Amino acid sequence: MEITLGGIAGLIAALAFVVLVFFLARVLSNVNRTLGSVANTTENLERQLDGITMEVTALLHKTNRLVDNVEEKTELLAPVAHALDELGTSLNEVTESVRTVSSSVHGAADENKEQIAQAVRWGSVAVELFKKNKTESGERPSRRRGRRERKEETSSVSPGVVATDDTMK
């Protein structure tokens, strides 16, 4: 038997094919294991997603109930907010009225300050006289008072308090 060049080339080609098939078999075996692992991971992921989906659904239902509850309470509080708004408006009006009255009183006081001062003076004199009469009525005054006592009585009233005809209007 003679070995020819064509035979050697065929033998080398056959050996190369066997080596190629061997390495391809190992690669395919690794790919098979990797795909199996991916399949297991995908199954686990699907189970976890099912659990998460159920939890999210329950959470959405609770959130919807909470939103409904908040809407109901908001509707109940709307009249209270409206009443508070009206109260604020009323308070602003009262404050404005008080300011107006205060301005009017202040203006009138400025215009009539002389008359007010005179009235205060007369009031002070009246109070002093009332106090003197009260203390004298409790002491049993003598029937006759001398000039000196009457002079002391009138001198206790301050000179600016007694009004004269030219200060009266």
Automatic annotation (TrEMBL):
Keywords: Membrane, Transmembrane, Transmembrane helix. Residues 131-169 are annotated as: Disordered. The chain crosses the membrane at residues 6-25. The keyword DNA damage does not apply. Residues 131-141 have a biased composition (Basic and acidic residues). Coiled coil: none annotated. InterPro entries: Cyclin-like_sf (IPR036915), UPF0478 (IPR009293). The keyword Membrane applies. PANTHER family: UPF0478 PROTEIN YTXG (PTHR40070). This is Uncharacterized protein containing a divergent version of the methyl-accepting chemotaxis-like domain. It comes from Exiguobacterium aurantiacum. The lineage of its organism: Bacteria, Bacillati, Bacillota, Bacilli, Bacillales.
